[in-house]
TrEMBL record, chain A:
Record-given protein name: Cytochrome C
Key word Cell cycle present: no
Region ranges (Disordered): 28-52
Domain of life where this protein originates: Bacteria
Automatic annotation (TrEMBL), chain B:
Subunit structure: Heterotetramer of two light and two heavy chains.
Superkingdom, natural source: Bacteria
Residue span(s) of domain Methylamine/Aralkylamine dehydrogenase light chain C-terminal: 63-171
Lineage per the UniProt record: Bacteria, Pseudomonadati, Pseudomonadota, Gammaproteobacteria, Salinisphaerales
Compartment(s): Periplasm
Protein name: Amine dehydrogenase
UniProt keyword annotation of Glycosyltransferase present: no
Length: 179, 174
């Protein structure tokens, strides 16, 4: 028994140290933390905040398509910069741009989405790729398109890209070497 | 006059007999040492402003970026890179910033405006484990992935191991 007492004591000590370590790793905010002034309540959701289209782009698009629309090759996010407007030049492209999941399933109202699309296609993101005869989207048109989401996204996209190639439009979507 | 003469002679001789020059030097020396060291021993505020960081920060960007209460962290979920060798805008050495991320909004108490905040993850080293912080003010459910902070946004980085999270300002939300 005398030999076991130091062992038991060491065990208790070790467990105490382990629990102390767990105490340091606690997740904050703790009971003593207070949010910065003005952040006590939930933020207004983007849909209800009434932000400008470029702010809405930042909040629900730019995380993956990135601020300037470069996209992310490593994540298979297509490049929109100086390219996305070419979809308007092929049959089915105008509809495709609203029916893709990121657009049709965003939190925005039909009117907000129409403004967002019109801003994106006439801003630095689309650049010169948008044709001069571009007719802005309306809320009603967006509502109809959102109601029929895409089933085969990649297949539809490939068809549209082929139609661009047929019109001698260079495919600069950043995904050329995609497997 | 003779009396005064004798008084000073005796008292001087008494001092000379009862003290030594070496002892006097030792005592003088120790006072010099103590005197030099005194400013170091006295209780001086050496925090040089750190103690007030929680109240001030930089003008227009108030608060302590190493605290879960800092305003830009209103929707963060992860370890604060400011506690992990990085800054509020930059990943720690040896990690890469995720290209994709999610974006929320936070209220800046300095000017009363809402700002667009990007919560990029830093990737490529094991979880930092310091300053875990989880606030969800502008987060939305997982079925809106672009507004969700439960996702490991290192999923598209070269190394998918999550290390910590930064909080950069993308602009004013208005």
């Amino acid at each position: 028994m005398t030999g076991r007492t130091p062992f038991a004591a060491a065990l208790v000590l070790a467990m105490g140290l382990l629990m102390a370590g767990a105490g340091f790793a606690q997740s904050l905010p703790g009971p003593h933390n207070r949010p910065a002034p003005g952040n006590e309540a939930q933020a207004t959701p983007p849909r209800d905040a009434g932000y400008r289209p470029q702010v809405n782009y930042q909040l629900e698009c730019s995380g993956c398509h990135r601020v300037d629309g470069q996209g992310s090759r490593a994540n298979d996010v297509p490049r929109m910069k100086d390219f996305v407007g070419h979809f308007l030049e092929v049959e089915g492209g105008r509809e495709f741009l609203v029916r893709v999941p990121g657009v049709s399933q965003s939190s925005f109202t039909d009117a907000q989405l129409a403004s967002l699309m019109n801003w994106m296609l006439t801003s630095h993101i689309a650049g010169d790729s948008t044709p001069d005869h571009f007719v802005p989207y309306t809320a009603e048109e967006v509502a109809d398109l959102r109601a029929t989401p895409l089933d085969e996204i990649d297949t539809t996209r490939d068809v549209l890209l082929q139609r661009m190639r047929d019109q001698q439009i260079a495919i600069r979507d950043g995904l050329a070497d995609r497997p | 006059m003779k009396f005064i003469d004798r008084f000073f002679e005796r008292s001087t001789r008494h001092v000379a007999y009862s003290t030594s020059r070496r002892n006097a030097l030792v005592k003088f020396g120790s006072w010099v040492v103590v005197g030099t060291a005194l400013p170091l021993i006295l209780p001086v505020d050496r925090s040089s402003g750190n103690a007030h960081a929680a109240e001030s920060g930089t003008p227009g960007d108030p608060g302590d970026p190493q605290s879960c209460d800092y305003w830009r962290y209103c929707s963060i979920d992860g370890f604060l890179c400011t506690c992990c060798g990085g800054t509020i805008n930059a990943c720690p050495p040896g990690t890469d910033v995720s290209e994709v991320t999610w974006v929320g909004t936070c209220h800046n108490p300095a000017d009363g405006r809402d700002y667009i905040i990007a919560y990029n993850d830093c990737c490529g080293k094991q979880a930092c484990g310091q300053c875990a912080c989880n606030r969800n003010d502008s987060e939305q459910p997982l079925y809106r992935p672009f507004n969700n902070n439960d996702i490991n946004w290192c999923l598209g980085a070269e190394h998918m191991t999550y290390n910590c999270t930064i909080a950069t300002i993308r602009g004013v939300a208005s």
